[in-house]
Amino acid sequence: MYIPPSLSLDVYTSIFDYLESAIDFSVPVMLCGDFNILEISECVTGTRTTQLFNIYTQFLALNNLVQHNSILNRNNRILDLVLTTESLTVTVDKQELTLVTEDNHHPALNIQLELVNLDSVPFVHGTDDLRFNFHRGNLEGLYLSLAGTDWLPVLDAADPTLACEKFNEIIFTNISQCIKCGSKFG
What we know:
CATH class of the largest domain: Alpha Beta
InterPro entries: Endo/exonu/phosph_ase_sf
CATH architecture of the largest domain: 4-Layer Sandwich
Protein name: Endonuclease/exonuclease/phosphatase domain-containing protein
Distance between the termini: 28 Å
Organism: Zophobas morio
Shape: globular
Number of domains: 2
């Protein structure tokens, strides 16, 4: 999720209202992104309070959300938030080895989400979605294919979105060559 900087309180209120109405917070939820609330790190420590921070904390409280990221950027701010419902266990650390050049405002994060009982998580799949049958796949071929993959398109991508697109494209291509699709979800 990305919220542009310097928005009015009314726009932030509208965004939080929309999220409240669009997302079912009674099931496990994770929201990640650049919320551009510059004062979060100061407000959390109690050295400052603002109207925007109050609106944000009200949104968290009403939806039983917890903010997990405490990694400061080079300006001693936290712009990238990792919000989850209280039922999820999440750890956030600084990722030292990055695929693309790290930007001053957004340190690379290593986010680990622990799902204890996957049967109780209501994952939604389209009825036409095919899934790979890894049980009958050529896993050794997949490993060799990945080991021989040219990762330069990912590493040379200047922007993280393009790097992710290239990464997904490479992974999907490798998997489709070695693993056949099985039954449909549904």
